[in-house]
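Batch manifest, entry 17 of 40.
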Amino acid sequence: MNKIVLLPPEVAQKIAAGEVIERPFSAVKELVENSLDAGASEIKVELLSGGKKLIRVTDNGHGMTREDALLSFERHSTSKISKVNDLSRIATLGFRGEALPSISSVARIVLKTSDGKEEKGTLVEREGEEVIRVEDIAFPKGTTVEVQDLFFNLPARKKFLRSERAEISWTVRYMTYVSLSSPELRFSLFHGKRQVFDYPPAKTLKERIFQVYGKSLLDHLMEVDHEEEERRVYGYASIPLSGRRDRTRQLFFVNNRLVKDRTLQAALNQAYRGFLEKDQCAEAFLFLSCPYSDVDVNVHPAKAEIRFMDSRPFFQLILHSIEKAMLKEQGIKEVYPVQEGERSGLKIKEEKRERYFPSAERKQEHWKGLFPPPEKEEGIYPRVLGQHRDTYIVASSEDGIFIIDQHNAHERVLFEKYQDIDRKKKWPQKLTLFPILFEFSPSQELSLEENQSLLEDAGFRVEALSGRSFSLKEFPDLFKEAEAKDIFFSLLEEVKGDKIENKKEKVLATLACKTAIKAGQPLSFEKMNYLVEELFKTSNSSLCPHGRPVMVKIDRKEIERGLKRG
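Output type: structure tokens
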């Protein structure tokens, strides 16, 4: 018997479908991209049970004839390309001819469509590989695709789907991003009878960002617009010192296709190096336009990744566009070229840097009273020798020398203190002098619904106003009122879509991080001694709550060996 056999077509089809359709959001993505390529001006997505029971995508695009509707379920059928050379200049979002065949092989699907030229439309119903019915129907110009019982014939795949709320969060995130790529179109999303959002056509990208994220985000963004040769980047990015703890709002669109690309992300991070605090990431909504031959979009089954023919011009394009926008935002004209070996591009003169980097004196007030007076206890702790670069505490013991990261050390101390407070349910709370108002994006609103009791247990009380407006009425008495909003938003992102058992620890770790001293903060010997003593009383003095090392120890034997005393 041969060891190598050809897989039956139905098995091969399901394997291929698994590369394209991983979860409900994948089906939504494929269908919405088809709607965009069909020239739709309105796209409506409806879900039941996060998309596990039903996905319905309706558009008013150019629709299909009966012949095309039947052919669209055949593998590799497409209207986007016809010959090999077309692969080097793909201008559409869907082009592989795998969307409908892949979805129909793992779900029950009903397609309704009309091109508007004939008196009747067409209905095609399929279950897996089997055609159930094909008939004429009355239907306006456009297409509706209903996907029912996703993975009904693949129980092994179905059991790996997450909770209803987690699955819908994927779709909300994608629909939010795709609405940014085409602000001139109308996008709506419903979950059951609930309208998650309905974005009417916007005249500009700025207006669409306002629709999605509200004015508070726009106030922290600067306009980006830069062109080099045949390549252009435009959009919006963070004004220094604004940033956030995650990269969920670092969005790149290449020829209007939302993509993940390390080159573009690395260029953005380098452009903001030195302009943001540690663990802060820039927000960016950047659109790159370039010749289609510059980029290969045919490298990933789900079309999520791309490959540049030469990534260097695009790296420089992002870098220079951010630097140019920063200078324009601050009205800074006094610049000089960076010397060889420094960060590429232009550098702001030293007398202007205070606008980007607050001095230690300006920050000093923030940390006053953060450390309580030390209480002397029995025990032997490393002796503090001093502070290196206002970031590392240098201490010595009989065994050697410790280099301690003051931020990570204070995180560990506060984390265990907050664990004790949480166990006793005695969070100190503070009322806001005036209600802190803000607007949520759809995904943030879902995160709040899922985690409101957890956040209330940690001392945050939020009340809903009209629309997506909310008011923060109370917050933990651990930080200033001016910081409460940013910390609350950070917590929303931290706990979004995570497992329940991890969320409480993440909340406490984030609070510890936000209230711990930062790198670059000068400390008195009294405060350094207190921090070192408290650190060595904790259950794990070697790691911060996020798993980063707290200290490096240089063993005494290593010192003696290096100085030829061993």
